[in-house]
Amino acid sequence: MGESNPVSAGVVLAAGRTRVWVQRGALHWRRGRTTVTVPGSQIRQVEVAGQSLAVGLFEEAQADAALTVRHRNTAAVAALGAEIEAIMSDAGAAGNGQSIRRQSVRVWPLQALAGLRDRVRNGSPWWRRALWYVLLGLPLAVWLPVEPRFLGPIAWLMLPPGIALLRLWVGMAELDTRWAMWRRGIRVLARFESDPYSEATSAYIVHFRTLEGRKITAHGQVRGRRDEIRYDPQDPSRVLAPTRIAWLGIALAAFLAAGVWGVIFCLPTLLWLLRLLGLPF
């Protein structure tokens, strides 16, 4: 006991709501929503009898005296028993201070609500905007007397995908990158070479020096007629080749693919706002 098992297969026994496996020197025994993590020093004995596996724990351990499971595959049961024996040690229950840990997960609705709460509190600001959109936007869309009455809920449903498609078009056309480069970008001479790891024929590896003399290697997707690039002094790996016709073609193709649908999805909201402004408040 106490020796590592170099040929451990990482067997996981799944029988009904019970799952048993060995990971990082501990036995993990999940039954329902409760997982018991047993360090190897807390395991007293392992008994394998055909389809049955029983793990005995030291009496000092704060858990059941024995954990048992049955599985139809006797080979898997025997392999897991060998893995458990490999993590056992002779230190006993008080050997190294490790103790058995119990962890229970919440039922699915509560777990989903807790995850949503954490995302709203600590996640992207878009989660908070979405929450305000649901809490304020839906009541306004339903209660305001705009005719036809179904226009408000339809506009409320179609506005988020419309904004998402327009945002996708901005990203595909690199509008945000070009705006940042126009405001603070610095144009320098660069050396281009083909990117051997990219399938796109227009992908390049760009080598240049910043104003501070730093050598930078970056990736670019489009190469202009001149051996020049614009780089962002706040992030020199962000580069853009000064092109016109090629970029306009990409922007037009991206608009036909995503921008048009974004505009169509936003039209009900625009119509609803026009009708709202026409009401005699």
For the structure shown, list the relevant keywords:
281 residues, 5-stranded antiparallel β-sheet, single chain, disordered N terminus, 6 helices, 3-stranded antiparallel β-sheet, alpha+beta
Task: Describe the protein in words.
The protein is an alpha+beta fold. Helix content is 40%, strand content 27%. It contains 6 helices and 14 strands. The strands form 4 sheets. A 5-stranded antiparallel beta sheet has the order 1-2-3-4-8, with helices on one face. A hairpin with a 2-residue loop joins β5 and β6 (52-57). α2 (108-122) crosses α3 and α4 (151-172) packs antiparallel against α6 (245-277). It is flat, with a radius of gyration of 31 Å. The termini are far apart.
Which SSEs are present, and which pair or pack?
Blueprint: E1 12-15, E2 18-23, E3 26-31, E4 34-39, E5 43-49, E6 52-57, E7 66-70, H1 74-87, E8 101-104, H2 108-122, H3 125-143, H4 151-172, H5 175-184, E9 186-189, E10 191-194, E11 204-209, E12 215-220, E13 228-232, E14 235-240, H6 245-277
Antiparallel strand pairs: 1-2, 2-3, 3-4, 4-8, 5-6, 6-7, 9-13, 10-11, 11-12, 13-14
Helix pairs in contact: 2-3, 3-4, 4-6
